[in-house]
Design a protein that fits this description.
Blueprint: H1 3-21, E1 35-36, E2 42-45, E3 55-59, E4 66-68, E5 89-95, E6 98-110, E7 120-123, H2 126-153, E8 162-172, H3 177-183, E9 190-199, E10 205-207
Parallel strand pairs: 3-10, 6-8, 8-9
Antiparallel strand pairs: 1-4, 2-3, 4-5, 5-6, 7-9
Amino acid sequence: MSIRESVLDILADSVRAYTECNGGPIAVEKKKIKFKADRQTFTMTENGKDATLTRVYVCDLDNDCVILKPDDFGVRFFRKDSWNKACDYLILVVVNGKKYAIFVELKSSIDNQPDGNDNHLVIDGNEDNKKEQQLLGAAELWNYIKLIVKKKTDSSELDDYDVRMWVLYESVKSRSPTQSQIMTTVPRRTKSKCVQTKQVHDAETISVHDLL
């Protein structure tokens, strides 16, 4: 069994274990886990009713890439709050011989545009914090997958993947001059150490190289 197949089997088993231990019917079957391979371009979609960034095309993917949608896994580590949410996509890809696990969250807008050439997510409010927590929570799910694959296959191959976390957004929410001045002075305004941002347009095509 390949690592790719092991990952899918483990996720399906996790879904069953999660739904059954809560006393309800199986809500997500294995066939509903989003999985794509053998395609060099993939369409990431956002279906929210108010979304303006509805799709982004990622190209230059290798033929053996794996693309998963963590929200469909059914695995949750926390009972509530944004830690219980996962990001929109996880892309496992090999570029120039290096392995990457790329976590992507699609957002129509963000509160703050990064300063200068520093594209890390600026965190100065609850919504910004939620974006970061969604990606960090998904990374914990990735750690879980790696641990179970290692136990099941005796392979540590997934440990070789470098992690990247991205919020892809279309626009920046406008602030008044007074608001902008206040937001630059509040002590809690920080930058995420892990999460980066990239501005894209709806239906834009980006290369996977832009996410490394």
